Please model this.
Amino acid sequence: MAGYTDPPYRDLLQEFKVPVLFTEMIDSHALIHRNEKTMKMLGKRDPDLFTQIAAGTPQLADHAMNILLEEETAGININMGCPAKKVTSCGGGSNLLRAPSVIKEICQVVRKKTSIPFSVKFRSGWNADLINYKEVGKIYEGEGVDFVMLHARTRAEAFSGHSNWDHIRDLKQNLKIPVIGNGDIVSYESAKAMFEHTGCDGVAIGRGAIGNPWLYLQADAALKGLPPLPEPAPEERLRVMVRHYELMLQYFDIRISSHLYRKNLVGYLRGLPGHKAVKEAIFADEAVTVERLKNTLGEYFETLKNFFSGEQTNAKYEINSAA
Ligand SMILES: Cc1cc2nc3c(=O)[nH]c(=O)nc-3n(C[C@H](O)[C@H](O)[C@H](O)COP(=O)(O)O)c2cc1C
Model:
């Protein structure tokens, strides 16, 4: 996910032993020009990491592949689902669903170039009048795509409402290649429900992963038919939140790290009482040190522990409010 599954978060997820990771979507134009920021987004290649690119034409895909294949990568994923105007207006992302013949050519170019695993991420269709996941699914299968990931919403739906899991079930029944379901996985229960409803071969996690790397472990347990894992204890939350920030500091300077960490912190603290005050306390400084983060969060979780056990000690944070 652009802006979230950046190299530090991917490093963190590797520590969680997530078996397959994807880069954020990489713009092929920027890749071809070896744009500095883009090369940083790509991060270090490794055997568990798929690189995801957006390319609106076979020519562009061809050039981008030349750069990608200079180094070892676990596999390639082409984004045919992104709804953003800056992507669709160049022909890429979900716009390709309106041009199945171009989809076919892009797949041919990629498949001809490499035998490494090749997957495609796509949507149910462009809008309610063009729901064509079955048709394009057949194209992928026919052109040697190894597995597909279906985000079961149309482009017009963007990220709204609930995704239509019937589309995932339908696709799974129509293809022989593995189908990965995507849309609204936020818990062990939702992962289990998607497996049961669709028969899909795996699930891809989107927004649910923001501030919740444990969700991968829950989805894995659901896939294996195991019971749900206990929710992480405050100590584990603290450890992971600090580790995430330490990893950020390995890639970015302290001010950029502080800025980028904010949205992750919002995710980590979502639903917990008193989160507003703790965020204010942490970001009172524009350059947050690891010590500051650790101490502030440590105090906060200590207060929360007391709160959950019913002991209201000298709480520094106002945790009675839902703020
Ligand atoms: C901020 C944001 C950035 C995203 N970036 C990407 C991306 O780079 N590549 C991609 O395949 N999907 C991207 N997505 C889509 C998600 O991966 C996922 O398909 C979508 O959010 C549906 O899953 P969900 O309902 O579980 O969130 C992004 C979504 C959001 C909200």
Q: What stands out?
A: Residues 1-3, 24-25, 52, 79, 121, 151, 159, 163, 182-185, 206-208 surround flavin mononucleotide (CB under 6 Å). The CA atoms of residues 163 and 184 lie 7 Å apart. The longest helix spans residues 290-308.
